[in-house]
Amino acid sequence: MNKEKSHILIVDDHQLIIDGIKSLFRDETQLVFSFEANDGITAQKLIDANHENIQLIIADVNMPGISGIELCKYVKQNYSDIKVLILSMYQTISVIKEAIFAEADGYILKNTGKNDFSEAVRKVLDGGTYYSEAIIPIIYKEYHKEKEKKEAISMLTPREIEILILIGKELTSEEI
After folding, report:
1. Mean pLDDT throughout 100-106?
2. Do 18 and 94 reside in the same domain of the chain?
3. In the chain, which residue ranges form alpha helices assigned H by DSSP?
4. pLDDT at 168
5. What sign does the CA torsion over 61, 65, 9, 47 have?
6. What is the number of structural domains in the chain?
7. CA distance 38 to 51
8. Cβ–Cβ under 8 Å, residues 12 and 68
9. Which residues does residue 9 pair with via DSSP β-bridges, in sequence order?
């Protein structure tokens, strides 16, 4: 991590989580928790007003107003130099994929310990990515599922693909 102080915005609808994160890093002189918000709308306003002073956003997924995923999309579209670390309890592939497609710099689970959380913050601030070990097998399994689908489709003839598309449109055998 660089020598300059990193200013962080924490966004979570549970104040206890915000206070807990700040407490975990209270002895870290390089990390400054300058901003906090309990919902995505407030966070978005804070970002717009202070984007030059924010290096990292730690955001929960499920919040009132704007979700952490939507907030991440907004940040990446408007302030691409700001890093976003998603902090969530969700381990479902749909939520993880949303975070990846939103260009989150990391995804860490709320049941993670202090050392892993600290490593995630540092890696993301250093320009890397970080995904909790528990979700890597989920991503890997989904990748292989998608790969198998593509391989199965590649073995079909163009006419077979056309027929499948027509079936998907609910056409009858006679119409096809």
Report:
1. 93
2. yes
3. 15-24, 40-50, 68-78, 93-101, 114-125, 136-154, 158-168
4. 81
5. positive
6. 2
7. 18
8. no
9. 35, 57
